[in-house]
Design a protein that fits this description.
The protein is mainly α. The protein is built from 3 helices and no strands. It is elongated and about 60 Å long. This is HigA protein (Antitoxin to HigB).
């Protein structure tokens, strides 16, 4: 399968009707939102696992900041 250049993609999109372009942009936006949601969920799962295994620190923002700055000084 040959690669399509970015300009070819733009040209193809511009050849679509305005309605189809709007539909495509909306579809891409929704997929990006879904992908971001999935990424956030995966990060949340990893954080919960780290907390339950004791690998993650808990505390207020100030406590975590102090902990991180402490590590930098060492």
């Amino acid at each position: 399968m040959s690669a399509i250049s970015f300009q070819e993609i733009i040209d193809s999109i511009e050849s679509l009707s305005i309605e189809d372009q709007d539909y495509l942009f909306d579809l891409i936006r929704k997929r990006r939102i879904d992908n971001r949601r999935e990424e956030i969920a995966r990060n949340g799962e990893e954080t919960l696992k780290a907390l339950s295994s004791g690998k993650a620190k808990q505390g207020t923002a100030e406590e975590i900041k102090a902990y991180l700055l402490e590590d930098e000084e060492e």
